[in-house]
Design goal:
By secondary structure, the protein is α/β, with parallel strands linked by helices. The protein folds into two domains: 137 residues, 3 Solenoid (UDP N-Acetylglucosamine Acyltransferase, domain 1), CATH 2.160.10; 74 residues, Udp N-acetylglucosamine O-acyltransferase, C-terminal domain (Udp N-acetylglucosamine O-acyltransferase, Domain 2, Up-down Bundle). 18% of the residues lie in helices and 27% in strands. Helix 2 runs antiparallel to helix 3.
């Protein structure tokens, strides 16, 4: 059974599945689909072409699907797609994409805290956490299980790899590779996200291989290109090598440097604080 407050305004094109709840004074207009048992708070605005999966929690004063803050946008039909079981807290803003048929996409099981902004054409994988006031510029890509601490700013076209963790107040202007910790102005790599890997059940052998791979890339006497070629010929897990080497090869903005004076060690990484 749907539960829609009498003060909410729902357009004729909006499709609501069973169990959807919509709070006071919210406005939904356009080609909108809301999945089963999703809850939408008060004073929220959703417009345009938007798909929201089931069991999501959309907080009060959230804005989804409004035109992008992009001078090249000419009113073309674009989209916002949000997966299942994702939470957007108070005052989060998510803009539709630029470019006919393109989408701004947020995956399953994401937790986007209050006052965060997700700009046009961003892609967020599954299990992403963004703490309060973090901001993504256009075309940012974030792989699964990444965490952004509060007040992080991410430059357009930057990519954040799987299971990265970004320290609070960081300015991210280059790509951050998978499984690493980054912090600073601009953000630099401070070590591996060992705690995150352990929590996600990544076994010790794989963690050690990741450790050795990054030692070769950042701490050997090889140039970056030669280190990547050496990895392709190595005996490390081929899937892991493909993931990390492929991240470098697809980079548009370059990959962040390792912070001076920091080493790739368990002791230093577990003491890393935000």
């Amino acid at each position: 059974m749907k539960k829609i407050d009498s003060t909410a305004r729902i357009g004729k094109e909006v499709a609501l599945e069973e169990g959807v709840e919509i709070g006071p004074y919210s406005i939904l207009k356009g080609e909108i689909k809301v999945g089963a048992h999703t809850k939408i708070g008060a004073f929220t605005v959703i417009e345009g072409n938007v798909e929201i999966g089931s069991h999501c929690n959309i907080g009060h004063h959230v804005v989804i699907g409004t035109p992008p803050q992009d001078l090249s946008y000419q009113g073309e039909k674009t989209q916002v797609i949000i997966g299942e079981r994702t939470t957007l807290r108070e005052f989060v803003t998510v803009h539709r994409a630029t470019g006919e048929g393109k989408a701004t996409s947020i995956g399953d099981d994401c937790f986007i805290m209050a006052y965060c902004h997700i700009a046009h054409n961003c892609y967020l994988g599954n299990g992403i956490t963004m703490a309060n006031n973090s901001t993504l510029a256009g075309y940012v890509e974030i792989e699964d299980l990444a965490t952004l601490s509060g007040w992080v700013g991410v430059h357009q076209f930057v990519r954040l790899g799987k299971l990265v963790m970004i320290g609070g107040l960081s300015k991210v202007v280059m790509d951050i590779p998978p499984y690493t910790l980054a912090d600073g102005h601009p953000a630099r790599i401070f070590g591996l996200n060992l705690v995150g890997m352990k929590r996600r059940g990544i076994e010790g052998k794989k963690r050690e291989e990741i450790h050795q791979i990054y030692d070769l890339i950042y701490h050997s006497n090889l140039s970056r290109s030669k280190a990547l070629e050496e990895l392709k010929r190595s005996t490390f897990d081929p899937q892991l090598v493909e993931e990390i080497v492929g991240f470098w090869e697809k980079s548009k903005r370059g990959v962040a440097r390792w912070a001076k004076g920091r080493k790739n060690s368990d002791e230093e990484n577990t003491s890393f604080s935000w």
